[in-house]
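Researcher: I'd like a candidate sequence for this fold, 182 residues long. If you have to choose between options at a position, lean toward the conservative one.
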């Protein structure tokens, strides 16, 4: 991105898509897993900065609350686990995904959702680390913005997606801190 010019969404999608296509095949599955783990640790650090009292409350009407972000990350983690593991273990064709906002259940606690994500990620990582790095790369499935990807690209996309929502949570946390100042 050139200095002073705001990147359009189309430019951002093209840049990320290029990154996924090139890096997913250059990195080993172990390196892809490590990148996902690092992103997940960043996500955990920032979600911990959101006070319980503000967890389910969006800053403005129509925006995501921290709970919505967490629920969305859990939904996509479940999709990643089911689809990537299905491809690796059984050569199954996953469905395409529409990555959209869903509001969090007010009954779900932060701890429950984080525990769900942990279990999903651990299963995904265990399967990936046992996989033949070249297995089933011909099986691709689509994302509504980023197009069709194989399991290695989806695994790297999980990193990008997690970091994107960590940044979203950082913005929520910063806005909450700003609103608390006199």
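Model: Candidate sequence:
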């Amino acid at each position: 991105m050139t200095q002073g010019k705001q990147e359009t969404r189309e430019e951002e999608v093209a840049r990320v898509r290029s990154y996924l296509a090139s890096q997913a095949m250059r990195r080993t599955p172990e390196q892809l897993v490590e990148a996902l783990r690092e992103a997940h640790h960043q996500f955990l650090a920032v979600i911990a900065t959101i006070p319980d009292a503000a967890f389910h409350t969006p800053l403005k009407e129509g925006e995501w609350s921290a709970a919505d972000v967490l629920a969305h990350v859990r939904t996509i983690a479940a999709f990643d686990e089911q689809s990537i593991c299905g491809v690796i273990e059984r050569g199954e064709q996953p469905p395409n995904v529409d990555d959209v906002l869903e509001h969090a259940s007010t009954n779900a606690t932060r701890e429950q959702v984080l525990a769900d994500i942990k279990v999903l990620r651990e299963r995904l990582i265990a399967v990936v680390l046992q996989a033949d790095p070249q297995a089933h790369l011909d099986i691709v499935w689509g994302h509504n913005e980023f197009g069709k990807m194989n399991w290695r690209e989806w695994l790297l996309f999980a990193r990008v997606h997690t970091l994107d929502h960590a940044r979203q949570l950082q913005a929520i946390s910063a806005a909450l801190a700003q609103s608390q100042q006199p």
